[in-house]
Structure formats: structure tokens, C-alpha cells
Specification:
single chain; 7-stranded mixed beta sheet; about 5% helix; repeat; signal; Calx-beta domain-containing protein; Calx_beta; calcium
């Protein structure tokens, strides 16, 4: 007799031969058709029966996703335990969710024996195998943080630079929107296996991450990168995307405003911080860079494009001058409205892929065009050079020499920061071996003309940064005095700062930097009892440099000097940091 079913129910009774149908899945494919096979199984082969089957739509639709089927299966006594039903699946390239339909059994008719449907419905799942490629400019977006942060994405691009633990890719075709970057960093954590010019798909478990150099507490901006990549190389030896010119004939940076709306509006045309973000990771070329400061101790160069054409604040010596806003007594350092911190200034740096590194040059040097990757680190956007950084024209600057000279009725006084000078070459720096005592001595003699009195800043104690309890700087001062005399200058007397105590003056721990004096006793005399510090030093100068007061007699007249070294900007935020406008951390301390 026939046995029917209602979808979703199991039918049959005790002692019946169970008839079941199993779930199955198949990858969709991109074109043509494939076959999804259902298997119908009976528990034993003692009887003979027929059973009908028919497909029914779920999220998959008959006709477009699969071909509907219906029919009858016959099992014979002593025959096979299984029969199959084949369904044709249509391939496509649409990115979509997995889809499914069902195949149901019904109307089982026993000829001999007693069989019954135990599992009447099976699900056929069509798994999506199409990848949605998201363009890099969509991942980057018009802003500082990607809207895809934390999501799995797939993108494609051409490799433009390969680092030790990642590489950069850039779209071959731009979207024409200057607000969105066409490039992105792929962070591999190990040495990449790609080559410049490879066109790749980044697929699989790929997550967009906003990486903050130095960590979240650093105050730095984040950079968008893709981590945990699975990479497919589609082709090699492709031409690289054309580098964006950062200057005449290309895109020019704003010249005065870094940010004027606290990130309220993404405006690369007017805000320097947005301008460079819109180029993050991209190949750029700085044409004819003019160097505006000497190579830093970190091997970085600060430049302006086009030999300085269009830049604001250039001095006659080729340096660039900042202008603070006014109204608070701190116009030089205030970053408020009306200030000009020269966002057109472009930092050039080296990475592992930079041939030859960064040359040691002075302000006023002109470089040949520099091409590289627009990156960001530690509060500053920078171009990581992919081409050699070479000099087109050296600086013609020479060291300035004072026009002042001492005379019978002329007293000369100078101020000189010796930058943590100390005699201990085993404390992590080598001032003696590097010849710093001698070079400072020559500058004092030749450039400053051997002043009658020199106010010194950042003299370290006799053991330098060795944190051994030493406070006196008598050896440091005497070595400098001896170096000046050896260079042909006068034999100075010195005044150490006896008012400081160990590790209470800021600066490098253990170094006990202080202000001090050198004076030419053949020209001036120190007034007895005049050396002092401020009477309220404990309150106003706690944790900072103690001022040093001294009175000297010259031509029967007394001259009183106060040698100050104000607190550094260690508490300030970067000009291109996450806090806008940037904070001058020492402003309050400087208002005495």
C-alpha cells in the first residue's frame, strides 16, 4: 500500500525498512552547469518498492539557480541499497549568500516487504564561490579610518614596494577622486613572497586594521592595512601606477592649515592632515625637493617641493619658519587659528627598500626628484623613498660667524646649548670619541669669537647618564675649558650649578642636566656671593632646570645674568597627530 508524507515529518512504523535521503552541498561554479547528487538509502534489500521525489525552492530558485526535478525511484528485492537523484546546478559569478533547496520523498508503494519513509526531506546547499573584490579606494574611503575596519575583504592591486614584513599595493585604475587613496599596506609579519610589479588578489582571511604606530597612547593617527593575507599572484612584470606629483603639475599640499575643524570635515584641499591621508600608501614624487633642515639624527630630511616655489615661511638661508597665532604671549609655539606650521613641508625617510639610504646634507641643499610611498609614523607623514635620494645641488650655507667682538668698553655674552655633553663614553653616547668637546670648543672660539661670558645649557654631570648618584659637572666643565684653550681660545673659569639635586631636573635620567657658566677671568670678575637660583625654585621649577643667577663686574659696573633652560616639549602632541589642534605641552610651564 502507498505511504505518503507531510514535508518536515518522519513516517514509518516499527519493523518497517527505513528509507532516508541525505543532505548534500556543492560549490556553485562561475559558469555552465554542475551536478548535485542526492542519495536515497533503504535499510535492507528484502522488499521491493517505488518512491516519488520532487524538488522545492528554498532560498535557491528553480530555473535560475538549479533545474527542478521530479520522478520515481524503484528498489527491487535483493537489489542495491541506494539510489541517486541528480539535480543540475547553474553557475554564475554573482557574489551572494549560500542558497538551498529541498528534495522530498513521498508516495512510497511497497510491492513486497514493508518499507517506510524515515527521513522525507534533504537539503541541497549551493555554496557561493564568488569573491566580491572591493576596490582599494573604497576600503580607504574619504577619511582617516576605513569603514571596513575589522571586516573581511578582498581587493586587488599592483605591488609597488616590498618591505621586510609587508608590502604596498596600488590600484591600476584610479577612481578620479582625490579624497580617496588608491593604495594600501599588506602586513604579512614575515618576509613577503611577492615582487614589485606583481598584480595580486588578496583573498581569504583578510581583515582591515587601523594600526597606530607607537600604540593607542602615543597620540598618533592610525594607518589602514590588511593583515593575515592569503595572496594570489595574477600576473607579473606589470607597469607600476604613475606616481602622484606633489607639486606643480600635480597635487599641491595646503601651505598653512594642518587641521581647522578637529577632523569634523575631511577636506584634503584645505587641511594638510587630510591631504596626506588621501595619499596614504600611494606612489608619490616630490619634484626638486629643497632641504629646509639638516639631516636629523634619525636619518630624515624635511623638504619642500619645487625648490621651495609656493612654500610659505622660507628664510634667506633655505630654512622654513613657523608662525604661531597671537594673543597669549606664546606666539612662536601656539598652534591656534592664524598659525602656520607649514603643512607643505614633506618629510623624506628611508626604509628597507630605499637604495643608498638618506644622505647627510644641510639646509639649502636641492635634491633630485624623490619617488616613494606616502607613509606615516610617529606624528608625521613621510615619503619612504623607493628611488635613490641624491643631491642635485649642495647647500652653499656656511656656519655663521658673529660680527661682535670684545673691546675695552664692549662686553660679549653668548648662550650655547651643548646637548647633553658629558665625559663618560660608556654611558651610551660617545661625546669624547666623537670629538664633540673639540668641535664645541672650535665653535666657541671661531664662530662666537670667544665671548667674555658663556651661558651653557644641558651640561651633564661627570658620569653622564650613568645613574650612579653623581651630581657634580666639574669634570665635564673642565674638559670643555681645556678643549677651548687647546683650540686657541682663552682659559675660562667655570661656575657649576650647585643648587640641583640628583634626578630632579628633568632630562635624561642620571644625567642631571643643568645650566652653567664659563667666563674669562681676564676680562670680567665674578662678584662674590652673587651666584644663586630663584628663591621659589622648589615650586616653579620642580622637575625642571634650576635657573642660575650670577653677577659679573666689567669696567667697574655689575652685570647680572639669569641662565634659563625652559622645559622641553616632551608633553606636546605631534603636529599631525590624533589630537587637533596639536597641544603645546610645555606652554603652561613657560608662563612664569
Amino acid at each position: 500500500m502507498p505511504v505518503s508524507y507531510a514535508p518536515g515529518f518522519t513516517v514509518g512504523g516499527a519493523g518497517d525498512t527505513a528509507v532516508t535521503i541525505a543532505d548534500v552541498s556543492i560549490a556553485e561554479g562561475n559558469a555552465g552547469t554542475s551536478v548535485l547528487t542526492f542519495t536515497v538509502t533503504r535499510g535492507d534489500a528484502t522488499g521491493a518498492f517505488t518512491v516519488d521525489y520532487a524538488s522545492a525552492d528554498g532560498t535557491a530558485t528553480a530555473g535560475s539557480d538549479y533545474a527542478a526535478v521530479a520522478g520515481t525511484i524503484a528498489f527491487t528485492a535483493g537489489g542495491a541499497l541506494t539510489q541517486t537523484v541528480s539535480v543540475t546546478i547553474n553557475g554564475d559569478v554573482a557574489t551572494e549568500a549560500n542558497e538551498s533547496f529541498t528534495l522530498g520523498l513521498s508516495n512510497l508503494v511497497n510491492a513486497t516487504g514493508s518499507a517506510a519513509i524515515a527521513d522525507a526531506t534533504a537539503t541541497g546547499t549551493i555554496t557561493n564561490d564568488d569573491i566580491s573584490v572591493i576596490a582599494i579606494h573604497d576600503i580607504q574611503g574619504a577619511g582617516h579610518v576605513s569603514t571596513f575596519a575589522g571586516q573581511v575583504v578582498t581587493t586587488t592591486g599592483i605591488v609597488t614596494a616590498v618591505d621586510t614584513n609587508g608590502f604596498y599595493i596600488q590600484s591600476a585604475d584610479a577612481d578620479g577622486n582625490d579624497a580617496t587613496s588608491e593604495a594600501i599596506l599588506i602586513f604579512t609579519s614575515t618576509a613577503p613572497t611577492v615582487t614589485i610589479g606583481d598584480r595580486i588578489n588578496v583573498t581569504g582571511t583578510v581583515t582591515v586594521t587601523e594600526f597606530i604606530p607607537g600604540g593607542a597612547s602615543s597620540g598618533n593617527l592610525s594607518t589602514t592595512e590588511i593583515v593575515s593575507p592569503v595572496i594570489s599572484i595574477l600576473s607579473s612584470n606589470n607597469a607600476l601606477p604613475t606616481a602622484i606629483i606633489l607639486g606643480a603639475g600635480g597635487r599641491t599640499a595646503p601651505t598653512e592649515i594642518i587641521d581647522n575643524d578637529n577632523f569634523g570635515t575631511f577636506d584634503p584641499a584645505s587641511d594638510g592632515i587630510d591631504f596626506y591621508e588621501s595619499l596614504e600608501g600611494m606612489l608619490v614624487t616630490v619634484p626638486t625637493p629643497l632641504v629646509v633642515a639638516p639631516t636629523t639624527s634619525f636619518g630624515e630630511l624635511y623638504t619642500v617641493a619645487d625648490g621651495g616655489a609656493g612654500a610659505t615661511g622660507l628664510s634667506a638661508r633655505g630654512t622654513i619658519v613657523t608662525k604661531g597665532s597671537v594673543g597669549d604671549g606664546l606666539s612662536v609655539t601656539n598652534t591656534g587659528p592664524g598659525s602656520d606650521y607649514n603643512p607643505e613641508r614633506i618629510q623624506i625617510d628611508a626604509d628597507s627598500f630605499t637604495p643608498g639610504g638618506i644622505p647627510l646634507v644641510n639646509a639649502g641643499t636641492t635634491l633630485n626628484d624623490v619617488t616613494g610611498i606616502m607613509s606615516y609614523a610617529f606624528g608625521s607623514y613621510e615619503v619612504l623613498a623607493t628611488s635613490a635620494v641624491t643631491v642635485a645641488a649642495p647647500s652653499i650655507l656656511t656656519g655663521e660667524v658673529t660680527s661682535l667682538s670684545a673691546g675695552a668698553d664692549t662686553l660679549t655674552i653668548a648662550s650655547y646649548n651643548v646637548l647633553n655633553l658629558d665625559p663618560n663614553d660608556s654611558d651610551g653616547d660617545t661625546d669624547v670619541a666623537d670629538g664633540r668637546f673639540n668641535s664645541i670648543a672650535l665653535q666657541i672660539k671661531d664662530a662666537l669669537g670667544s665671548p667674555d661670558i658663556i651661558a651653557l645649557q644641558e651640561m651633564q654631570d661627570n658620569s653622564g647618564s650613568a645613574n650612579d648618584g653623581t651630581v657634580s659637572a666639574s669634570i665635564t666643565l673642565q674638559m670643555l675649558v681645556d678643549a677651548i684653550a687647546l683650540a686657541g681660545g682663552p682659559t675660562y673659569s667655570f661656575i657649576d650649578n650647585s643648587f640641583i639635586t640628583n634626578n630632579t631636573n628633568g632630562g635624561e635620567p642620571g644625567g642631571n642636566i643643568r645650566v652653567a657658566y664659563l667666563y674669562d677671568a681676564s676680562r670680567v670678575s665674578l662678584v662674590a656671593g652673587s651666584v644663586s637660583t630663584t628663591p621659589d625654585a622648589a615650586a616653579d621649577f620642580a622637575g625642571s632646570r634650576q635657573p642660575l643667577v650670577a653677577t659679573f663686574e666689567f669696567n667697574d659696573e655689575n652685570v647680572t645674568l639669569i641662565n634659563n633652560h625652559f622645559s622641553s616639549k616632551g608633553g606636546s602632541t605631534g603636529l599631525f597627530g590624533a589630537i587637533q589642534p596639536s597641544i603645546n605641552g610645555s606652554a603652561a610651564e613657560r608662563l612664569i
